[in-house]
Structure formats: structure tokens, C-alpha cells
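Much of what follows relies on a compact textual record of a protein's fold. The record below shows the convention in full:
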Amino acid sequence: MKKIISLAVLTLALGPAAALAQNAANAPDLSQEHFQALDLDKDGSISLQEYEQFMRDTFSKLDANKDGSLSPKEAETILTTEEFVIVDKNKDGKITLEELLEQVTTDFKRQDLNKDGKIQR
């Protein structure tokens, strides 16, 4: 499986994706480049708000037909077929921003090992 969604999205500009639904013990080590891309305010940590904003921007870029959802084709650069099925909570064959952000929140909580609301280097 690819890495967490945030890293998967970085495929667009920064490199390979990583596993979607990993537990905290297996959370990927963010490269400096990936970390900097997600640390939007450059304070040395990634908040859930930064994580979500990055994903909102990415969703907008991927939504080629601007219908407010991602088709399997639109999402193929960041999600495998299996991952798409996981994120598509209502099983309607498309991913809405709300569904994506729900997964992002889950992924963030897995990576926030000390539960302080931030992912730190």
C-alpha cells in the first residue's frame, strides 16, 4: 500500500507515495522536503489545519472536471484502487472532499504520536 494520504499527494511534486492506513508504530518518517511542504506556516511542526489545507489544495488540483469529487481516474496518482475504496466511505464510486478530509484526520491522529495536535520533526 502507499503511504499516508498526505505523502501520497506529494507524489504530484515531490516523489513516491506511502501507505494509507498505517498504525502509529509504522508511521512513515517524513523526509525534510515532505515535511516542509506540509508545514505551511514554517513553524517546525504540522498542525491538523495545515494538513487539511494542503489536502484541500491538492483535491482542487486533482478534481479536473471541477465537479466536487474525485473519480478513480482523477485520484489514480495518489491512491491505489484498494485505497480509493477505503476513502470512498459511502461507496458511491467517487471521493468527496469531506471523505478525503475524514481520512486525513484519521491519518493525522496516527502520526501525532504524543497527541499534542502537531506532527513534529
In short: The chain has one domain: 5-116.
